[in-house]
Design a protein that fits this description.
This protein has about 250 residues and is of the alpha+beta class. Helices cover about 40% and strands about 25% of the residues. Helix 1 packs across helix 3 and helix 2 packs across helix 3.
């Protein structure tokens, strides 16, 4: 038995929204919400967010976690791509070329474009469906998030300020050749965008677009760091977000 006089915790509120709260505690939480309007409003907003996310992303909820996202890859040797296999996969994967502006001129090698974009889209599809745990560090701790990812990744990781999008937070992921930073943003309608960055062997590339199912991505590299911005397949909207990120990175020196 639980004590109804014990204050309801935030974890219990999340569990209540997710229908994971023990049955014997459910009545206590509902009684608490009836007398705590602020918490009731939070629960209502979480439920509304969950409904929006389910409506948008339910098609990927049952997909298996990709092997490339296992954390032990952080200490593995970088993958070696077989050119023929990459070329065959790339032919089916790429939906378009550049989006109209050049970062600094050089073209991306197929293997770099393929490996970074596939990893970024896998991470995007895995985490955008999460309501309770989409990130490791919340956006409210922006300074800590940037410092932590910078220390772990080995380059200056910035979380851009994006008009109309709120920083949900970020996490550390394995990348094609080492650690990768992963930032998530969300609009008021529940639309989510992610920014995946990792060290790249190429200094600079043009921006390139790819689509996989219901998700799109824009890839580019600059100053030895690769960026992939992922979101829906509305290419103009994705380009708008990527352009804003690119402009801020240029202003801040990468």
């Amino acid at each position: 038995m639980t004590d109804p006089n014990i204050p309801v915790t935030e974890d219990e509120l999340h569990a209540y929204v997710d229908n994971e709260l023990p049955a014997e505690r459910r009545g206590d939480v509902e009684a608490w919400l009836a007398t705590h309007p602020d918490d009731a409003a939070r629960v209502q907003s979480w439920r509304a967010m969950a409904e929006r996310l389910h409506a948008r992303y339910d098609t990927v909820l049952d997909e298996a976690v990709p092997k490339r996202l296992e954390l032990e890859r952080l200490v593995r040797q970088p993958r070696r791509w077989v050119y023929g296999a990459v070329a065959a996969t790339l032919a089916a994967f790429i939906a378009g070329g550049g989006v109209g502006w050049i970062a600094h001129g050089a073209a991306a090698t197929p293997s770099a474009f393929q490996s970074f974009t596939v990893d970024a889209l896998d991470a995007h599809r895995l985490y955008v469906v999460e309501v309770r745990h989409p990130v490791e560090v919340p956006g409210s701790e922006r300074d800590h998030l940037q410092q932590w990812l910078t220390k772990r990744c080995g380059w200056d990781v910035r979380a851009p300020e994006l008009t109309g999008l709120k920083l949900v937070g970020g996490r550390l992921l394995p990348g094609p050749s080492g650690p990768a930073s992963f930032l998530m943003y969300e609009s008021t309608s529940g639309e989510r965008f992610t920014v995946y960055t990792a060290k790249a062997k190429t200094d600079a590339t043009q921006m390139r677009y790819a689509v996989q199912g219901s998700d799109g991505a824009l890839f580019w590299a600059d100053r030895g760091v690769a960026y992939v911005v992922s979101g829906g397949t509305d290419r103009s909207r994705l380009t708008q977000v990527a352009q804003a990120i690119y402009d801020q990175m240029e202003k801040n020196g990468g």
